[in-house]
Amino acid sequence: MDYQKRLARLQKKLDRKKLDAILISQPENRRYLSGYTGGDHGIAETSGVLLALRKGRTFLLTDFRFKLQAEKETSGVEVMLYPKGLLELLGRLLPDLGVRKLGFESHYTLHSTAVELKAQLSQKKIALSPQSGLIEAMRIIKDEDEIAAIKQSVRLNEKVFEEVYSSFADYKSEIEVAIAIETAMRRYGAERPSFATIVATGPNGALPHAVPGVDKIQKNKSLTIDMGLILDGYCSDMTRNFVPGKATKRYTKLHRLVRKAQLAGMAGIRAGIRSCEADKCARSVIAEAGYGKYFGHSLGHGVGLAVHEGPSLSGRSKKKLKAGMIVTVEPGIYIPGWGGIRLENMGVVREDGFENFNTNSTWLDI
Amino acid sequence: MDYQKRLARLQKKLDRKKLDAILISQPENRRYLSGYTGGDHGIAETSGVLLALRKGRTFLLTDFRFKLQAEKETSGVEVMLYPKGLLELLGRLLPDLGVRKLGFESHYTLHSTAVELKAQLSQKKIALSPQSGLIEAMRIIKDEDEIAAIKQSVRLNEKVFEEVYSSFADYKSEIEVAIAIETAMRRYGAERPSFATIVATGPNGALPHAVPGVDKIQKNKSLTIDMGLILDGYCSDMTRNFVPGKATKRYTKLHRLVRKAQLAGMAGIRAGIRSCEADKCARSVIAEAGYGKYFGHSLGHGVGLAVHEGPSLSGRSKKKLKAGMIVTVEPGIYIPGWGGIRLENMGVVREDGFENFNTNSTWLDI
Lengths: 366, 366
Prior knowledge:
The structure is a homodimer. Chain A is of the alpha+beta class.
């Protein structure tokens, strides 16, 4: 990935916004601009902050624990430690660098941190300017290198699914399936799952974000597996739904309905249409069959360095899709007490349509 | 756990602070007060917010995806959905409930969210009051039920370590060891690891937060395993250091030094001493041997529902330790190019000393 090119684009944005520098605290934004993979343990425990100057120098401010990693993973970025904390270092560093106006990521900075930062910098006569989505606006359109990386991630995710599916009878409980999946992911070189793997049997499938438990896999009942991994930084996300044993008529009917909605969603996506229109392509199929109230979430979301990022394929978003956006298409029907069915593919928005990355077809067209 | 008792304590705090209600967004705080285990996918994707009223009612505000889970896991808490987003719901709900002054968690609310919330509520003439650490101040002292739960978590963590250690020769790379550990954790009923398991061979051990990779386990070199799990919500955290093969004289000397520092740290801890004094008990052992600059982090941290919480056993903290606090004691020496040695136990601060929870003694006293 060409980090210098990304930083140069950011510098132009800073120029337009008349900011001398910006602090980048959001982990995927930090990685996008520098290649630094340091993981935060939640927002309150950062593994570092990028300080990008309009005039060109870029610093990675971090602590002792991450020094070697930061130096190893970045180039053209000056690694600097804050033994007395970030605020103290900024109070010394920014005046030296001639920074008079500093941007920060309002959407990834704690309210309490912003208050402290403001107090610290006002002493130095440095103005703070909240920014939102500056880097995300760059990240939302993927270049072909990124698209290739995401395809690799999808391919590996499918390989893992197919391996576990082929020996499915070996697993007795939801958690055993989830462990098998996550173990295979890491064995094949994934950094980690891109989210906690969902394995939901029978009625558990009615919870779209079910947590796999010790519940035994139920014969002849709906089973949902929603899984993704991170490979070289880029995420994948896929849901398959099937029945261990024999599908009931009701299952088959609902599964075909969800699949029909998914195909309609994929057929409707192309550059230039609004997110809400894409959502409607799939939703209207389910609504017309009388199951609209059982499809309570959006059609899909963007995927990249983060497993959930822009754009949102939501009925509430009027934003237009653009070529190079990566999205999931994942309609679902959730019936309390019975279970759920969700089918999820992902791919890239092209000028003339949707390029689906998934090649796995397990149980898709029953 | 007695959630009603905890809520009653919170209501008294709200009374003293003249707040009509408070929004609890921090995931462990939410769980501490309600039992709701819903997991956030980062701070920007919440699985719900608790709204606790001074006068007694408590709501869990969440979305469609988490409804069944929220209802199943909580009692005495009213689950309410926000199909049009949290801000819209608050704008309707708070005036109906007579809330005129609302607290929010400044240390777990994004700056951008606070700005939006303020704009929304000022229309309704509701004042916003940033709060910090209200629930953490309750969580920092554990009752005996919690202490028992944490002991169970420590015990299971040691069981997993001992199992993997006993078959250590089976694993070729860092990542294979990490997978074996995390698989065993989940097989034995842990919710998940409490942090990403660290397995660092040879020079990798010089990074206190090393990420396990495909690096082969090096014979006769230092190996660090730092691992923890979550059992029934409560975390454990333990580090062991050993040599697959034969330890060098240098390893043995440094290992004994770190162990001596750990024993001095554990011996020094009791209710009433300052955090910096506890840190110094261990640090001075390492400093006097001439390795002070290789011990770059604090002596330890609190553990509970979060694996990192208060108190911090830091040289910069003058706060006094209190009975019922749970802390780790984890001195380390990190030498770039050579590797690192860290030994970590955890236990509870008692009036007259430190009750160490760890019974595992693998390679501790070599």
